[in-house]
């Protein structure tokens, strides 16, 4: 019996479980005050990447069966601050449906007066409203997913409370603060996916990141236009879809990745040359050059 829907998910899941095993080890064994603090600091960026994989899992679950999916979502909840079905309701059934409409988008980047939010305003606002908005999406249209969301959230809180009962100091720095930090980092990263792009055309509504290291660690989340075009497509197939769409995506809808991949000019906008767009789409470079000469 095959446990995974896609074999490409095996190594990432093993890595997530390895990180969680280290979390539990630090929680159970750390006796010096600085060890949990250091572990918290070291984990901010890696757990930010894990947020991307939690996102992929909520679009297309890694396992074929419910129980392993729910168990993995408990791990994801402690690592990312996003519990079972929260991404599914807020992001898959909310944002993906409404992202072209800033009056409805669950991750809206515009204020009510039509002006653009700052990074901090957007990040804090989206993080603080994430769970209420997920609840509202479920309450209006998806009662089955809402029941799972509420039940798993209660279980996550009970488990977190048990950890605090065992060791409140270690639970704070190994679990609760990383959950809060990861949720904020996740919402901050999504600011750069769509900000300023008000359009009815899916090909013109997302920024893309082509950096190999970024896409390796985030499961190709940089191919964001492709992701919104077919949000149920497995993460491993997004580069191929992006190649098919490359000629339709405006050359100015690309960005540099964030820290730690780029420290100077993080999230800076890029404009691809016609040569680069042709290369992405697999079109012969010579043909592109002939067009320029004509």
UniProtKB/TrEMBL annotation:
Positions of transmembrane segments: 12-31, 145-166, 172-192
Family matches, as InterPro entries: FA_desaturase_dom
Keyword Transmembrane: yes
Domain Fatty acid desaturase: 32-252
Source species, domain of life: Bacteria
GO biological process, one term: lipid metabolic process
Keyword line: Membrane, Transmembrane, Transmembrane helix
Record carries keyword Transmembrane: yes
Protein name: Fatty acid desaturase
Organism ancestry: Bacteria, Pseudomonadati, Myxococcota, Myxococcia, Myxococcales
């Amino acid at each position: 019996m095959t446990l995974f829907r896609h074999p490409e998910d095996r190594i990432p899941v093993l890595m997530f479980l390895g990180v969680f095993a280290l979390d539990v080890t630090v929680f159970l064994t750390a006796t010096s005050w600085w060890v949990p603090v250091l572990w918290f600091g070291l984990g901010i960026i890696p757990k930010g990447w894990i947020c991307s994989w939690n996102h992929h899992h909520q679009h297309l679950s890694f396992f074929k069966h419910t129980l392993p999916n729910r168990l993995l979502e408990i791990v994801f909840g402690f690592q990312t601050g996003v519990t079972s079905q929260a991404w599914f309701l807020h992001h898959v059934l909310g944002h993906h449906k409404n992202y072209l409409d800033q009056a409805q988008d669950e991750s809206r980047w515009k204020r009510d007066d039509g002006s653009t939010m700052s990074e901090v305003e957007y990040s804090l606002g989206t993080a603080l409203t994430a769970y209420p908005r997920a609840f509202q999406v479920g309450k209006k249209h998806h009662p089955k997913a809402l029941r799972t969301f509420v039940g798993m959230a209660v279980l996550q809180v009970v488990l977190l409370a048990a950890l605090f009962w065992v060791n409140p100091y270690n639970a704070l720095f190994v679990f609760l603060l990383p959950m809060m930090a990861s949720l904020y980092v996740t919402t901050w990263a999504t600011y750069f996916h769509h900000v300023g792009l008000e359009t009815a055309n899916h090909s013109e509504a997302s920024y893309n990141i082509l950096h190999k290291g970024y896409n390796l660690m985030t499961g190709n989340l940089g191919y964001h236009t492709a992701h919104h075009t077919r949000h149920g497509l497995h993460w491993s197939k997004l580069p191929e879809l992006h190649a098919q769409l490359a000629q339709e995506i405006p050359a100015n809808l690309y960005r540099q990745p964030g820290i730690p991949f780029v420290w100077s000019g993080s999230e800076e906008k890029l404009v691809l040359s016609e040569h680069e767009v042709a290369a992405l789409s697999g079109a012969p470079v010579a043909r592109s050059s002939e067009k320029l000469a004509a």
